[in-house]
Amino acid sequence: MASFACIDENNIVTKVLVVHDECDTDEKGQDFLVNTCGLQGVWKKTSYNTIAGVHSLGGTPLRKNFAGKGMIYDSERDAFYEQKPFPSWTLNEQSCIWEPPTPMPTEGGIYVWDENMLQWVLSA
User: How many CB atoms lie within 10 A of CB 92?
Assistant: First the structure.
């Protein structure tokens, strides 16, 4: 099966649909979804197996991340990524995943990011 994301005028993903494998390019998917199904919009192919710029089955990654509703499509990077979670975080260009200024601790409990303090704090 092939997955396609509908992109609105602000480059936000509004929905993701699965179609038959014959729609293996953006052009074929766009044609099928608009002309056959009557679903208007701009449709971009996305891969369920692509996360952080890596294809989980060893294939070629597509558009850095599998698209989800509310995500951004960046045409310059040809990538899908989440909305920026905090002003201090930066986008990793290789993975198109947002990264905090300091890595999250890996031991001692569950941590949440405190933007005011610009650090990870233990969750209560």
Answer: 14
Please tell me the pTM assigned to this model.
Answer: 0.91
Q: Quick one: which of 57, 45, 53 has its CA closest to 92?
A: 53
Q: Which residues of 22-52 are buried (b: 16+ CB within 10 A; e: fewer)?
A: ebeeeebbbebbeeeeeeebbbbbbbeebee
Q: Which of 81, 21, 51 is nearest to 4 (CA)?
A: 21
Distance CA 66, CA 53 (A): 9
> Please, are residues 120 and 112 in contact by the beta-carbon 8 Å criterion?
yes
Sign of the dihedral defined by the CA atoms of residues 75, 81, 86, 91, in that order: negative
pLDDT tens, residue order, the chain (124 aa): 899 999 999 999 999 999 999 999 999 999 999 999 999 999 999 999 999 999 999 999 999 999 999 999 999 999 999 999 999 999 999 999 999 999 999 988 999 999 999 999 999 7
